[in-house]
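Let us practice reading a record.
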Amino acid sequence: MAMNLEGQETIGASIDKVWAALNDPDVLRECIPGCESLEKSSDTEMAATVSLKIGPIKARFAGAVTLINLNPPHSYTIQGEGKGGIAGFAKGGADVVLAETGPDETLLSYTVNADVGGKIAQLGSRLIASTSKKLAGEFFAKFNEIVSSR
């Protein structure tokens, strides 16, 4: 079951600072809702453990985060895939585009796609869509807060 959503954040930092933060596992770990661990295995690959509650189901996903289509400092795609045991699987990604709107201001635009299967998928598309939207919103709002304050 797949879905897409879009959003934007205006970040009070230069495009280079925003780009560096998007590639920093410590920043990403802080921003990913429910992230327990995020370890870099190469410049573009990380291993992650994330705990999430989706409706009545609480699941712990172990998986990988990969950065692809890198076009520094303007855009990239962040992809994640996790297996949550009997709860099922979740995979998704975000195309992230940066545009400099001032010396210390960057517009971050994102398009998120998510796909879930297994027990979680049985919860219904409305709940999954609203949860995905909430998680994406939390990720980018937290990212904005961290990067703008530095």
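A brief commentary: The chain has one domain: 2-149.
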